[in-house]
Amino acid sequence: MTDVLTYQGEFESNLELQLAESVKAGFPSPADDYRHEPLDFNRDLIRHPEATFYGRVDGDSMIEAGIGDGDIAIIDRALEAADGDIVVAYINNEFTMKYLDLSHSKDGYIELKPANRKYSPIRISDTDNFEVWGVVVWTIRNWKR
Fold it and tell me: What domain count does the chain have?
């Protein structure tokens, strides 16, 4: 496994931040000063607070998906994972974050696919101790390190 998530606890506090209507990646506009209601991560990003956790990403296997070492993943355990979702999986006593590929289910296996060409997919069969632990719904990246 190439990525390991460190459990960081549940969301408990209420923090409201101002939300700009849009953030242009071009020239600024005077209309950009208009703000909407405050953004509260707990209210606006978390659908299932009792089943949502966050973890710090350790590794680079999801870098081509925009998820890098040190990023924070918000993981919802109440969601049912679907083909193509980025999931946190527990396989053979380790956690990893990968794309879930169910396209081989009829052949008796599934795959966990990295988003980094350096790594190979992980093939999961009936003999593996495997569980989809949760679905990654958001990630947070610190661009100023």
Answer: 1
Query: Exactly one of 13, 29, 98, 105 is catalytic; which is it?
Result: 98
145 residues of the chain, pLDDT tens digit each? 445 554 445 545 555 545 455 556 666 666 556 566 777 888 888 899 899 998 999 999 999 999 999 999 999 999 999 999 999 999 999 999 999 999 999 999 999 999 999 999 999 999 999 999 999 999 999 888 7
Domain with residue 58: its CATH number is 2.10.109.10
Residue 86: inside a domain, yes or no? yes
The answer to whether position 55 is within a domain reads: yes
In a domain, 43, yes or no: no
Please indicate whether residue 118 is annotated as part of the active site. Answer: no
Cα torsion through 86, 90, 56, 98, rounded to 10: -30
Q: Domain of 97?
A: 4-11+51-140
24 is catalytic: no
Residue type, 67: I
Considering 22, 24, 29, 61, which one is annotated as catalytic?
61
**Strand pairing category for 52-58 and 4-7:** antiparallel
